[in-house]
TrEMBL record:
<keyword id="KW-0472">Membrane</keyword>
<feature type="domain" description="EamA">
    <location>
        <begin position="156"/>
        <end position="291"/>
    </location>
</feature>
<feature type="transmembrane region" description="Helical">
    <location>
        <begin position="185"/>
        <end position="205"/>
    </location>
</feature>
<protein>
    <recommendedName>
        <fullName>EamA domain-containing protein</fullName>
    </recommendedName>
</protein>
<dbReference type="InterPro" id="IPR000620">
    <property type="entry name" value="EamA_dom"/>
</dbReference>
<feature type="transmembrane region" description="Helical">
    <location>
        <begin position="70"/>
        <end position="90"/>
    </location>
</feature>
<feature type="transmembrane region" description="Helical">
    <location>
        <begin position="96"/>
        <end position="118"/>
    </location>
</feature>
<feature type="transmembrane region" description="Helical">
    <location>
        <begin position="154"/>
        <end position="173"/>
    </location>
</feature>
<keyword id="KW-1133">Transmembrane helix</keyword>
<dbReference type="Pfam" id="PF00892">
    <property type="entry name" value="EamA"/>
</dbReference>
<feature type="transmembrane region" description="Helical">
    <location>
        <begin position="275"/>
        <end position="291"/>
    </location>
</feature>
<dbReference type="InterPro" id="IPR037185">
    <property type="entry name" value="EmrE-like"/>
</dbReference>
<feature type="transmembrane region" description="Helical">
    <location>
        <begin position="250"/>
        <end position="269"/>
    </location>
</feature>
<feature type="transmembrane region" description="Helical">
    <location>
        <begin position="217"/>
        <end position="238"/>
    </location>
</feature>
<feature type="transmembrane region" description="Helical">
    <location>
        <begin position="40"/>
        <end position="58"/>
    </location>
</feature>
<dbReference type="InterPro" id="IPR050638">
    <property type="entry name" value="AA-Vitamin_Transporters"/>
</dbReference>
<feature type="domain" description="EamA">
    <location>
        <begin position="15"/>
        <end position="143"/>
    </location>
</feature>
Length: 303
């Protein structure tokens, strides 16, 4: 099915909700693992274990490996833009800023994606969609609460997280152009394998992980959650949505992540939900309706 960037069907809305839960957990897992692991080593473990988890599934599905340099080239490009750069920037940024602020900055990803896709001539710059994304970011700020703490290097951490969000926008463009006919499972696995090669070099030069003390059980559990849920499974879902509904639509997941995080805290941990969080969720929901466009068209017909 060709991507349709004007509408998202019920199936892909459901997949977006699942993806928001999977990716939302990455901020928690990062925060836990960074207590004992340096950031680039953590990213290396994330992509390497994620690839290792998916590799057996390739054999089950009968998906072969890319052939030669030309076959692997697109996956190295996607791995660089979708994993190596944003994962590294965001996880380093989280050493300077709180996870809540990082998730707010991550919610700017659709803005970068809309801009990149329009500049590349892939999608029309529709004011309805731009207005909806801006409204969604406002909703995330309301839901999370601005509450920026004063920390050393905070401005640097903010820039790093924004750089990661921008990289995701370029990754969506590259994936749409280079991998539109690739199976989601193969795309997810091969880009993680390519990312592992690149991150192994970066981590070896910058952090020399073989000299680090062995992390504890809690850290390993966080790394496994990050690799298995927030990476391996999440990317299968991500590339499925990208293939069906297009680049800008799949990036709307970053607006849903803060909402699902709060709902999970309420359902699983009994955490209270404040009126500010309810207001933020309503604004985000309204933004998604504006972006989708169908409700607005229905109201216009009624009028």
């Amino acid at each position: 099915m060709p991507p349709n960037d004007n509408r998202i069907d019920a199936r892909d809305w459901s997949l977006l909700a699942v993806l928001s839960i999977l990716w939302g957990g990455s901020f928690f897992f990062n925060g836990a693992a960074l207590r004992e692991l340096p950031p680039l080593t953590l990213v290396l473990l994330r992509v390497a274990l994620g690839a290792a988890i998916l590799l057996p599934l390739l054999r089950v599905q009968g998906i072969g490996f890319p052939r030669g340099k030309l076959g692997w080239k697109p996956f190295f490009a996607i791995g660089l833009l979708n994993n190596v750069i944003p994962f590294s920037l965001i996880v380093i940024g989280q050493t300077f800023i709180p996870s809540g602020l990082a998730s707010i900055l991550n919610a700017t990803t659709p803005l970068f994606t809309v801009t990149v896709m329009a500049m590349a001539g892939e999608e029309a710059l529709q004011m309805r969609r731009v207005a909806g994304v801006v409204l969604g970011v406002v909703g995330v700020v309301i839901l999370r609460g601005w509450g920026i703490e004063t920390r050393p290097g905070q401005g640097f951490g903010i820039l790093l997280c924004l750089g990661g969000a921008c990289s995701y926008g370029f990754a969506a463009l590259a994936a749409r152009r280079l991998l539109k006919d690739s199976a989601p499972l193969g795309t997810a696995t091969f880009q993680l394998m390519a990312s592992t090669v690149m991150m192994a070099v970066v981590a070896a030069v910058m952090e020399q992980p073989w000299h680090l003390p062995a992390p504890g059980l809690t850290t390993w559990l966080a790394v496994l959650g990050l690799a298995g849920l927030s990476t391996a499974l999440a990317y299968i879902v991500f590339f499925q949505i990208l293939r069906r509904s297009g680049a800008t639509n799949v990036m709307l997941v970053t607006l849903l992540i803060p909402v699902t995080a709060i709902l999970l805290g309420w359902l699983l941990l009994g955490e209270p939900i404040s009126m500010r969080e309810i207001a933020g969720a309503i604004v985000i929901g309204s933004a998604l309706l504006v972006i989708d466009g169908r409700v607005l068209r229905m109201l216009q017909r009624v009028a």
